[in-house]
Amino acid sequence: MIEDLFSSAVLIGILASGIRLATPYLYATIGETFGQLSGVLNLGVDGMMLMGAYAGFYITFQTGNPVLGLLMAILVGGLMGLAMAFISVTLKAEQGISGIGVYLFGLGMSDLLFQKTLGTVETVSGFPALHLPILGSIPILGDIFFKHNIMVYGAYLLVPLAWFILNKTTWGLKLKAVGQNPAAADALGVNVSMVRYITVTIGGVLSGIAGASLSIALLNVFQQNLTAGMGFIAVALVYFGGWSPGGVLLGSLLFSTVNALQLWVQVKGIPIPSDFATMMPYVLTILALIFAVRKVNQPAALSKVFDRSEG
Amino acid sequence: MKKVSAVIIWMVILALALVACQPQATPEPTEAVVATEAPAEPFRVAVVMPSKINDLAFSQSMYDALNTVKNEMGAGQFEFVYSDNMFVVDDAAAAIRDYATQGYDLVIAHGSQYGSSLVEIAPEFPQTSFAWGTTVDTFTDQGITNVFAYEARSEQGGYVNGVVAAMLSKTGTIGVVGPIETGDAKLYVDGFRAGVAATKPEATVNVNWIGSFSDVALASEAAQTHINAGADALTGTAQMVVGAVGVAKEKGVFWFGTQSNQTSLAPEIVVASQVYKFEVVLRQLIELVKGGTLGGQAFQIDLANKGEVIEFNPDYALPDDVAKAAQDTISGIADGSIKITLP
To answer: N or C terminus of chain B with fewer C-beta within 10 Å?
Structure first.
């Protein structure tokens, strides 16, 4: 029974599944990390993902070209991000509540559009799995890492890119200054509003891509509430990851791999009630949040509105 | 600052309203009824269902049945309205009460989770007939006389699908993607297992309960896991299985559907779907209500009364011996010569 889980086929399966499942979380968490590091808590991620998922799916369905679908998801996600930035930066709204508003808007609007334009569940041919030459034929490692679709690779390439932008560029440092002490950054001539507009829009774009990674790469279907709350898990994973790209990579992979593990636990008939198995990833994430997270990295101005006249 | 918060509050209200409005009663577009020689009042039905009318699963099966009955009786004789996407039982209860207040002849609570709401509401509207499914409980033991019950014997179609899956599977491993281990889903899966066991006792049926009716991504990964574990035939129930069908299509393994015909999702690999024909029950209910009986009886759809039908995908050429075995199983279950023993 339990030893069945340790055969190489199963381990390869678990790790490959974990890598695939982590893809939408990675896009969404990296985007959210940018926003939060600059001091904006965006709880609308799930709604933005849904809009991106729908837009990407619809365009792919109409044109048969997932690249156009992805571009549309980027555009729609970016618009949703701009809207969130307008609400939280220009209108200075309470971020938690307005984020929920954006989520509900995305949930309702994506469903409405889906009902009006498609009306029923359809399938598309999205991005196919690519077996990378040479790398894909490495035994074991090739099966785990190099037989995914292009959006999976994109998610993992994003991690070092985000790390570089945040830690090695002037703009990245400005961004973090805005999140730690917007008044000081402002005094030094950093345009706080502009920085936050850009980060929240990046968050929107990446959320849109996260949604598209589901609807036109991993699942190739769209359904009402396709994301089923993934965007909220992504927000939690940003805390989990301590606001660093490496941290959220770890968090996303842990959550997804445990999820993949519980699927195998059931398939192998290990006598654990299915309810406990499905609980595993969530329980583990909570435990990790309690024991492992260093609070020191939290941006000091997170979810605080910046008003120059009050500074 | 004040002005700004007012703007935000309005935006949130707007967003909430958008979501709140979406599951509201959507009257069927009926052609303008021209006052002609048919002055008879149409029979009016209201239905509350948990998911969307186009979920290719549980709710769609009821919606399709209502449309069938409407076509049979004619738009002037039969009207129906529905509220879909009523996952929240409280909202569903409010909708059921609304419909009862509006004087519908028959109010259908299409979801086993709505039972306790009906116990409260039905006695307040003794002139209205209610129907609740899928269940066998009509609450007559609680002195309630205006509730009908209906259930789907989904283990029967599950058994047939199991027989066919066992015969088609070359690896002898078959995967099942289920939502939560209860009710209709459990019944179907148990029937499927029994069908496989009766046909090919040495075959393995792996079952995965993903713990959600909506997590399409996890359903998809569960299907992937089954295939990695050697499965070459898959089935699953509830509305999140579209994710699993997608994987089956991509990997070219057989798919067996239930609740609605899922062939349109993947014509290449869907072999057969168990389809619910709730109109079998609806017709009887309508006659009873017209005759003055408002409740107290339980109905079922099954293979014998053609309330459950196995629809084969015409584009998939089923080998003759398998097709024959499937037909024999269907008629065997219908005439009672095949008994399904559930675990």
So the answer is: C
